[in-house]
Amino acid sequence: MESASPRITCSAIVKQALGDTLIISHGGPVRAILASLLEIPYRKAWNMEVSNCGVTVIHAEGDSMKILCVNRTPDGWPR
Predict the structure, then answer these.
(1) How far from chain centre, in Å, is Cα 4?
(2) In order along the chain (79 residues), what is the average pLDDT of each group of 10 residues?
(3) Angle (nearest 5°) at CA 52 between 18 and 34
């Protein structure tokens, strides 16, 4: 049952989002959403680095979701 919660969270966020949506969060929920999208056990998501102020972009269209970038920090942004 450990992977059920992240999937519910991810589905709920997508269903509530209208248009472009910004979510500011701690690393745990970011990892939970990524674990759900990647279909990996939640406990393995703790192996992912989620930096302070890191940006993760997920494109959702209908029932389809695509991870565009993970943990992008200001040092890695294009100039």
Answers:
(1) 15
(2) 52 70 85 88 89 86 84 70
(3) 50
Q: What is the pLDDT of residue 79?
A: 47
Q: Which residue has the tokens 């565009």?
A: 68
In one letter, which amino acid is 60? A
Helices (H) and strands (E) in the chain, counts: 3, 2
C-alpha pair distances (Å), 23 with each of 27, 30, 43, 46: 12, 9, 22, 20
The pTM of this model reads 0.71
The dihedral over CA atoms of 19, 70, 66, 38, expressed in degrees to the nearest 10, equals -130
